[in-house]
Amino acid sequence: xxxxxxxxxxxxxxxxxxxxxxxxxxxxxxxxxxxxxxxxxxxxxxxxxxxxxxxxxxxxxxxxxxxxxxxxxxxxxxxxxxxxxxxxxxxxxxxxxxxxxxxxxxxxxxxxxxxxxxxxxxxxxxxxxxxxxxxxxxxxxxxxxxxxxxxxxxxxxxxxxxxxxxxxxxxxxxxxxxxxxxxxxxxxxxxxxxxxxxxxxxxxxxxxxxxxxxxxxxxxxxxxxxxxxxxxxxxxxxxxxxxxxxxxxxxxxxxxxxxxxxxxxxxxxxxxxxxxxxxxxxxxxxxxxxxxxxxxxxxxxxxxxxxxxxxxxxxxxxxxxxxxxxxxxxxxxxxxxxxxxxxxxxxxxxxxxxxxxxxxxxxxxxxxxxxxxxxxxxxxxxxxxxxxxxxxxxxxxxxxxxxxxxxxxxxxxxxxxxxxxxxxxxxxxxx
Length: 431
Prior knowledge:
hpI Integrase, Chain A; alpha+beta; Double Stranded RNA Binding Domain; single chain; about 45% helix
């Protein structure tokens, strides 16, 4: 999709009436006083940014729109409400071409560049180099709606930590998108450092909590797991495909979308090598029970997808209906499918697996995503500390004397504990 920018020619697909429309400098216009059309909508085009227009509707809305061309067609995209997005920021969003020079061009920005100007370049950079289209849309929305109205006119180099903290606190009280807005602003500040607009390591967003780290990821109790597995088995005949999906989610810790869209060509040697996922290419490791499920399915159905939809050329889109039945039968009405992924991680962390290993198994892009389980590592560390101190105590004690105060479990009990621990570790280690 091509955005129009100053000096570009209007595409041939624009109508004659659009080309003949008189354009005005919208910076000097009192937008609130402009009369609304009696019916439908009216467009007023900006004279400075080709493709940018003010849309007035009879309903009372006043929004910025930008015309874009691609694949021989022209479409218009809404940028945002005019009272939330200043006209200068709207111009930047529609005037920066996607071919914006990157880090190797140190003269891309002036030292006095505003947040709006740098944000547009940052989003163009990510669209070209890093993000999925859906991620880019979310980040662009966060910038337009929550960053530019408050900080867009400020110089990037002048933004302070206290200013960001105040902005984020106010935003947190009004919208659930505050975390994404903070993450977007933080990424833009790093981008600004790369372009010499700020000193290295001066990101004012650094250290602010981008994610609420509550007590997420707790174990499902053994009793809950037994009820859940029994409910899955009880519904397997009626909902065979959804039950297999749920089994694989529980055994692998994969995301629902990764299992639903899994292709047979991606399954090999006890693993599923995904070309694309939420965090990019990654490997889902398959334990023996998961491999058995896939082997059984391979013998029953062909086609491209492990879980085909109504049309064999597309994957299954949902298992929500069957999941509601299963969790109701198991007595866990509030349990989410994604909680199975949390349980998978919790088993690993609470049994001593390093957070980096758990993050790799889950396909986390960075360690911050795995740190939500850090509170669970305390019990594993405590057990390890007790074991180490016990070994030291044994070494210091008189070999012929036995401490009357320390209980030594029987060999059978120790073996039972090891087997129990081994099952837990195997669930994650092979998953």
